[in-house]
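User: Batch of two.

Assistant: Item 1 of 2:
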Amino acid sequence: MVSLPHPLPGAVGLSHLSAYDWEAADGVCGGSPHLHLVCTEAYVVTGGRGAVQTLSPDGYREVPLEAGTVAWFTPGTVHRMVQGSDLRITVLMQNSGLPEAGDAVFTFPPDVLADPERYAAAAKLPAKEGPEAEAAARKRRDLAVEGYLPLRDALRAGDNGPYLAFQQAAARLVRDKVPAWRELWRAGALATAERTGAQLDALASGTPGYLAGSGSYDSRPSRLGGYGMCGRRDEYELPGTTLPYHGE
């Protein structure tokens, strides 16, 4: 089992984002549309203005974002961060480590989603920094938008069939990853919840020995301006937070 000592509260993931300013095919500047299969994601807006476009079987929404807004997306909801003016966001992610292990799936066209090797090649960035990384991130974003726009158009027309098909394709694509995800979940979010139960039991029995192991921790970003799905991402080298597992 993977060991995650001293995770953030609730074993959440944490990063900071600034929206991409690259214009897409529909004239919108923003990130790569994607969904998560088992993780809820939250945007806490810390500055600037913009929007997030979401797709779900119930339809299309565009939510305005400004400082103080909190917007979150449950599993199966496609989200696309849209630049307005100097948009800055802190991201809280359920089940830290799972998004980096493949829980996030881009809205690539159906033929790409149907081929795991093509999908992996299209989703992977060849480098972390520099012109090559930027070009690959932009190409990835554009391919995700290419698959996203027909889904949005169909939902606007009242047809959720293509979107439901996309959700099924995303689930098939990640099915083989589930055993590894289960281990990350057991070591992270589940272990955190079980630890709380053990602490409650200790308090109820009058033997709170776990308090002797208390401590405080701090961290600074380990990488600034990385190429994330939604935009440029500041990451923290914390257990299970934003760094990948299993070479994913």
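Item 2 of 2:
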Amino acid sequence: MTKSFNSLSAAAVQALAQHEPRIKSEPSRIKAAVCMVLREGTNGTEILLMQRAHHADDPWSGQMAFPGGKIEESDAGPKEAAMRETLEEVGIELSDSQFVGRLNDLYGFKLEDVYVAHIASFVFWLDEHVPVIANYEVADTVWLPLSWLNDADNYMLYEPERVEIPPMPAVRINMELHQVLWGLTLRIVVHFLDIIEHPMSVIEPSIRQRIQRLEENEK
């Protein structure tokens, strides 16, 4: 695929469907599942992102994320949890017929030698536009074109206020609304783009290697 890539091809969809995800089982404080919801928009394929509502006691307050949340005992599995949370948070009812594939599980950072979060990610495709109805957990939603992700003008190094870590790769969405795509959510996007053979070329090789080492340390 070329830098002018905008839309998901049939080959890309097939690559997602055939991907054999790495399922992980390391101890973690939270086991969660998210949905990457895709659709075809006026500017090519778009990914649904939501901005979490602002709460002082929420470590992920105001951050950009995929619809999803904690896996409950009543859920049949992580995919069902992600689908349930997507319906609750953004009002989109997903079905198995819209399911494309599962991505590798990822972990958040470690706190006292235990991972803060274990995230399972599932890709769904919408054949038609449906309304987004956000609940109280969501401050805003954005349909972000894939083309936005590999535009050098949108790329930045981000230093989060709440966490003392080196500057992280990020994609600016709307700086007036403090909408920046970074952290675990960006790692999921990077992994997704690698599967469909359209890697984020705007990320410097040294930083990409740092992300790769994170994945290797989680194996």
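The chain has five helices and twelve strands.
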